[in-house]
Amino acid sequence: MAHNWDDLRLFLAVAREQSLSGAGKVLRLDPATLGRRVARLEKTLQVGLFVKSPQGYALTEAGVQLMERAEVAERAMRLATSEVAVESDHLTGQIRIGAPDGCANFLLPQVCAQIVANNPDLDIQIVALPRVFNLSRREADMAIGVSAPTAGRLVVQKITDYQLHLAASETYLEARAPVQHLADLKDHRLVGYIPDMIFDRELDYLAELGGARVPMASNSVSVQVNMIRQGGGIGVVHDFSLGFAPGVRRILTDKFGLKRAFYLIRHEDDQRNLRLSRFAHALSTGLRAEVARLEALN
Q: What is the pTM of this model?
């Protein structure tokens, strides 16, 4: 089976996702078809690679050994094709980006729309999830993070800083007691993250205010912005999101503000991939420009 890379590629996806449905989503293959391919691989090798159960697909000892060899083959394949000359100035194929939902909702759509306009044969997939992406499991070709990871075979590049401030809707502020000092926040409803679902310490914005109770909470930044728009309370918002939230304005800007950064995270094996490097440059350049444009509106 050493010559059949496609079977090894499918095997790796099932091993990493631990289910046919999860691997099928990554590969864009029907789970039933994927199951038949796995069964065929096991029959050809005359060994069981997975223990199947209602909980998913767990590797057998033989499966673990094959996974180690398949990952070596995967790295070799990526290296072998990484420096193949690009035939034109246009990017083609499919690229998947993982990103926190604030970036995915308020920045990536317009940045990626421009990239696709310049590269009509390119398909971009944006996966917006409130968690850290695992590039070693190839959940995405690259990811945007709010902190720089220090473990794993990753290459990290800072993209840009961005600003956050307290904000509330005009209707909420008109109906409630004035907010002139940070101490006044104790008399107001706060909007923020669900405390036990904060996946990165850089997102624990309200800790800067003393960790007060959060009556309206979500694990999604865009949901928080909409809560604030509907008069739910006062929350910490990205300055670049305010252009998408009419009727919401910043408050106490001279007393409270945060600066955070976006980082582009790539797998170490992709450093010499010219196609992904060109896309990464376009993405980083576009994000820097878009953050600057939207923040200048405030």
A: 0.71
